[in-house]
Each structure stands twice: as structure tokens, then as C-alpha cells.
Amino acid sequence: MADKRVTASPSQSREMLPILKAKPGDVFAHATDKGNYLNPDMWYDIVIFKGIYDSKTTDSELVGDHRLASLPEGWLIFHWHPDNPGCNRMFYQAGSWQRGHALVAAIDGQEISEFGGRPLGIALPLEDCWGMRTLLEFGCNDEEVDKYDPKEGASS
User: CA 92, CA 99: separation in Å to the nearest integer?
Assistant: First the structure.
């Protein structure tokens, strides 16, 4: 049996998927595996939305030093929050390992291909960002929201 098509208005879509109305600096929690059998520890990742990749205008500081030539136009750029509780595991859980790009910054000018680098964030196509949720929607309490608020010192 074929899947039944589901439609939503643009305003309904923006309400269901907060990433559609994101502005640089907005903070998101990745919620796709919260509490399921793959995630008994209840970890989650906190990311800061940095913008949409455009090879002509995006600051190279936002995308790091690795695989820049292969980063597709229009992908969304996220940096790991400095106080991220999830250790960047979202990259593997969200299916991002198949299509996402890890953003890595070189350490002291060393070659990334030989020495690795500092994890900076992740770039994803919009269609892979359906698991991004605002902190309140995700269920963070007021204290957690304040902790992760970019105005409170998230400068990555």
C-alpha cells in the first residue's frame, strides 16, 4: 500500500519544524532519539544555527577547514554548543553519517587528514533537519534554556 500524502500550509510547517524559521544564533536540541531504545542514557545534542552555506559569501570560519570544496550550496550550518551535553553523537544517530558533513577546524595549522582537528559542527541539508527542536519544545527547563542561550556566552 502506498503512503498517503500529507499536506500542511506554510504556517503549519513552520510551527511543526522550527528550523524553517531559524535565524543565525538560534539554539536547537536534536531530539530524534530522546529516550528510545538506542538512547537509554537520554543524551541529546545542543547546536547553534549559524546560517545557510553559500560558497561566495559564507565566512570560512563558520565551516572549518575540512572538505570545504565538497560542501553543497544551501546546506544548513550548525556549531556544537560549547556546553553540549551530547558529545556530538547526533552526527551518527540522525543518519547524518550518510549525507551530513562534519565541520572540523585545523589545530595549530596541522594537516587535518593526518592529525584530525577540532570538532566545530555539522552541515546538513534542510530535509535532514526535521529532528531539530527549540529548547522549550524539547523539554528543557528554564535553567537549561538560560544555560544554552547564546546571549549567555555561547560564542562558538
Answer: 11
